[in-house]
Structure formats: C-alpha cells, structure tokens
Design a protein that fits this description.
- By secondary structure, this protein is mostly beta strands.
- It has 3 domains: 37 residues, no CATH class; 78 residues, Immunoglobulin-like (Sandwich); 197 residues, no CATH class.
- 11% of the residues lie in helices and 35% in strands.
- It contains 6 helices and 28 strands.
- The strands form 10 sheets. It has a 5-stranded antiparallel sheet with strand order 17-18-19-28-22.
- The chain is elongated, with a radius of gyration of 33 Å.
C-alpha cells in the first residue's frame, strides 16, 4: 500500500501530497515517490547537441580573392539527442575575413552545452583579374619584358586576361598586359624559374591560348576563348629519368601510363604551392596505344608531356590528332634538352603508332623517334595557367 502522508501525535513527519514530481520530470533512472506515495522511476534525459548540417546552400558560392563569405540564403540546422532541430543557431564561419585563392570550403561551427559541432560548405575562390591583354602595346606606355619578379597570382591574372582576348591565338608570339601599375611584354620563349624538389628549373612560355580549359569557368568566369592563357614547359630535363610504364607496353596510351597517373602528380607536388594553385587543368589528346595506328582519346591534365605533333608539327611516329604545334617550336626554338648539362633523350606522351611496346621521344639531336615504354628517359613536363 502506498503512503503519501505520515503523522505522529498530530505532527506531520512526511507529506507527499503536494509533490509534483512525475516520471517525465525526474532524471532518468532515479527513483522517488509521487504525490500518491507511489514509487516512480525517472524518464527525463537531458537534451544534447548531436549534429550540425547545412540544409540549404548560400546563394553565392563563387568568390573573387579578397571578398568575404556571404551566408545569405544558407540554412544551418542543429540536431539534438531528442530528435529536435534548430535552424540557424548562433554559429560562426571560418575563414571570417578575406578569402584567398584556392580556398575550397568554409567551416560552420556551433557550440552548446560544452559540445561543438561543425559543417562545411563548398565554395570557389578565383583571382579577380583587373588585367587586360592585347597583341599591341598601349600608346605611351612603357613595358617591361618578361615575367621575372612576378608572383603566381600575377601570372594567373595575366593568363586570364590573355584567355579573355579572342584576338590572341595559339599563333601569337607576343602579348602586352596591363595590370594596374604593372605593364609587361610577354613573348613565347620568356621564362620563369621555379624550384622542383629543391632545385631551380627554367620553364619556357611555349604558347598563348593554345590549350582548352577542362572547366570553362576555371578562372572564376567563362572567358572569351575558353583557353588557358599561358602554357609553360621545362626548358631542360628533370634530374631524374623515368619510364613511361613499368612493363614494355603502351596499352592504354597516355591515359593509363604510369608517367601520367604517378610521375606527373609527383612533378606537380614538387612545384611551389602558389603555382600548384595557379595550374588550370586542360584537355590533352593522345593515341590509345596497344598497336593502334589511328584514333585518339582526350583526358584532363594538370601536368603533361607534349605530343609529337605539338613539338614537330607532324606525326612521323604517332597518330594524327594529338594537337597542333606550339608557337615556341614553330618559331624554330631548339628541341634539344639537357640533363645535367648534356643533351639527353626526352619523352613525349604519344604512343608509337602501330606498335604496342613504345612511346615517342626526342633524340639527343632534336629529331623524332620512339623507344621502349619501360626504358628510363628524360622528362620535361608542361602545365597551363
């Protein structure tokens, strides 16, 4: 029998009749007695923060460098242990200041009751180009020749301006760029010096608006040409020599080669981070290998080897359709590249036409040839900004 009130000699010793405790208000697992004197077990569990998610994206996700994140339109939802949800709690966003080129996400953070949860929102940040490019010099302007002393961000702005001028083509040899107080005359053959794995190497400008951007909006917005503004290639060879494949086969062509899937990623990783960010993926065509004597396939590449046609302007050892000759080589610049000061063989991405065991390369004399895929040969890779 339940007891809710006890009196002894008229004195109240226990009185539960006014008690308002219920299972719902009593902490989970704790026992007590209610106003009727009946023992009850608590059911109440404290509510805790269990998750955070972005349930609606912001209106703006593409930014220019220097802008700050705008959360307008974004809905952030906190979830709790009891299933409850709370929209747009007092969250913070990082980075909170000026966005830098290469930033790909912002992090939303919310804390409650000593518990912190985060969520991320994808964004893109591009370098805002205030530059303009032309095939002729502006009247009364003094231009400095070459790219020396410029940052990767400067060169990216130049490249975007070049890409945005349809009068600049892959046959153009010189462009004039105006970028605020910077005025540069840039010609095919001009160089930038970049460290690779601790050693400095010269990279030649080998063409303007030559390679098609994989993503037309790679600069943040679509440009007039859809091309990467500047293509660079190593002037001489990397200190280490490499095979195209571990075995003597060109099956799968450039697309499946170890050179493309492994070595090129290594080369990109050796570049300074700002230049890695500056690289724009482009579409590169090459033969399919495996004995094929016609047909190409196209892949998107950050770093790449040149094809036979891009170097020589013809296809002595490769299939047709791998690309047109770069302005640098069309102008008659040397095809001989050095390794440690001496002329050495260097690979092309072209599988040897009609054969299944070789890729094309450039002889020490600068002439075209092909060689077994598992041979170790010099590498002079290219990339676009």
């Amino acid at each position: 029998m339940a007891v809710n009130k006890i009196e002894v000699n008229g004195e109240t010793k226990l009185d539960l009749t006014q008690d308002t405790v219920t299972p719902e208000s009593l902490l989970f697992g704790v026992t007590a007695h209610n106003s009727a004197g009946v023992q009850i077990v608590g059911k109440y569990q404290s509510v805790t923060l269990t998750g955070l998610e972005i349930t609606a994206p912001p209106k703006k996700t593409a930014y220019n460098a220097g802008e700050t994140f705008d959360p307008a339109g974004m809905v952030v939802t906190a979830t709790y242990s009891n299933g409850a949800k709370l929209e747009n709690p007092a969250y913070t966003v990082a980075p909170s200041g000026a966005l830098a080129v290469g930033t790909t996400t912002v992090t939303v953070t919310y804390s409650e009751g000593g518990i912190t949860k985060t969520a991320t929102q994808a964004i893109s940040v591009s370098f805002k180009s205030a530059a303009s490019a032309s095939t002729s010099a502006a009247a009364g302007v003094s231009y400095t020749s070459g790219l020396s002393g410029l940052s990767a961000e400067d060169v990216t702005a130049f490249a975007e301006a070049i890409s945005n001028n349809s009068n600049i083509t892959n046959a153009t040899s010189t462009v004039y760029v105006d970028f605020g107080s910077i005025h540069r005359k840039i010609s095919v053959g001009d160089q930038v010096t970049l460290p690779l794995d601790g050693t400095n190497y010269a990279f030649d400008v080998i063409g303007f608006n030559h390679d098609t951007l994989t993503t037309p909006t790679a600069y943040g917005v679509a440009t007039a040409t859809g091309k990467a503004g500047i293509t660079f290639q190593m002037h001489d060879l990397f200190v280490t020599i490499f095979a195209m494949n571990d075995s003597r086969t060109n099956a799968g062509g450039w697309k499946s080669s170890k050179m493309r899937t492994s070595t090129m990623a290594t080369m990109k990783g050796y570049l300074p981070s700002a230049w890695q960010t500056a690289i724009k993926p482009v579409n590169k065509a090459s033969g399919t290998g495996g004995g094929s004597s016609s047909g190409t396939e196209t892949v998107s590449d950050n770093c790449f080897l040149l094809a036979e046609g891009e170097i020589f302007g013809n296809t002595t050892n490769s299939v047709a359709g791998e690309g047109v000759q770069y302005a640098y080589y069309k102008a008659g610049n040397s095809k001989i590249k050095n390794l440690n000061g001496s002329a050495y063989l260097w690979w092309e991405r072209s599988p040897a036409s009609g054969g299944s065991d070789a890729f094309c390369f450039v002889y020490t004399s600068g002439s075209a040839g092909n060689y077994y895929a598992d041979a170790t040969v010099g590498v002079a890779f290219g990339f676009c900004v």
